[in-house]
Amino acid sequence: MRRKIIAGNWKMNKDLKESTSLVQEIIQKNKSFNCEVYVAPAFPFLNEVSLFSSSSQIKVIAQNVSNKSSGALTGEVSIDMLKSINIESVIIGHSERRKLFGEDDITLKMKLENCFKNNMEVFFCIGETLDMREKGIQNDVIENQLKNTLFDLNNVNLEKLVIAYEPVWAIGTGVNANSDQVQEIHCHIRNLLNLRYGKESSDLIPIIYGGSLKPDNSSNIFNCSDVDGGLVGGASLNSQTFVDIINSI
Ligand code: PGA
Predict the structure, then answer these.
(1) pLDDT per residue over 146-161, tens digit each?
(2) How many domains would you assign to the chain?
(3) Catalytic annotation present for 188
(4) 77, 78, 198, 215: which sits with the fewest CB atoms below 10 Å from its CB?
(5) pTM, rounded to two decimals
(6) Measured in angstroms, how far is the CA atom of residue 154 from the centroid of ligand 1?
């Protein structure tokens, strides 16, 4: 049985008080979840949110991490720093990091390599732009994103890997991919994982969907056979909509 996962990516939203209140509200609204639940607050609040969620099932995940271990890298945060506050999971390759902060495949491959070397769990984001989808090349784009990074590494801890398919055109736009589009790509990703790692080991890797997930579209998407959960942006900033999405899985 594959893990079922819902993760809330708070991006650059919520200050300290808002972050701790949000996690407390989620816990109060739902004492026992039917899947694994993660939240990703901004870096300065990872520790506080972790402390508030420590007695619950909620796990805290970082939105990013440096590809280097230490040194003169102003503004960066290392894996060791995250581990020192008991953060064991990180989102890598979100399309906003790729597009707005110039993270290319070489950087992402280094980040992945460091994470696996240090036993960090990775949520690795991949996805095509609108232009690519209109050209009908989304399957090739996804394949290349995997081949240039993850598939080029020798020591991948598959137990610590979650793939997040996030079509860039669906992120923050209010336009979600429909369940047929999601199922088709997730099945493609599943086949690529099977080819690279063998069916037995790769069948356990969760593939989650992200892009304008809301309580009114989530259950359709989560019902797809190759969808193992969701990465939620905007709708995770409100405890009720986030809990509704969690309950729809
Ligand atoms: P969204 O963001 O739910 O606001 O579209 C998803 C994401 O960026 O992970």
Answers:
(1) 999 999 999 999 999 9
(2) 1
(3) no
(4) 198
(5) 0.97
(6) 30
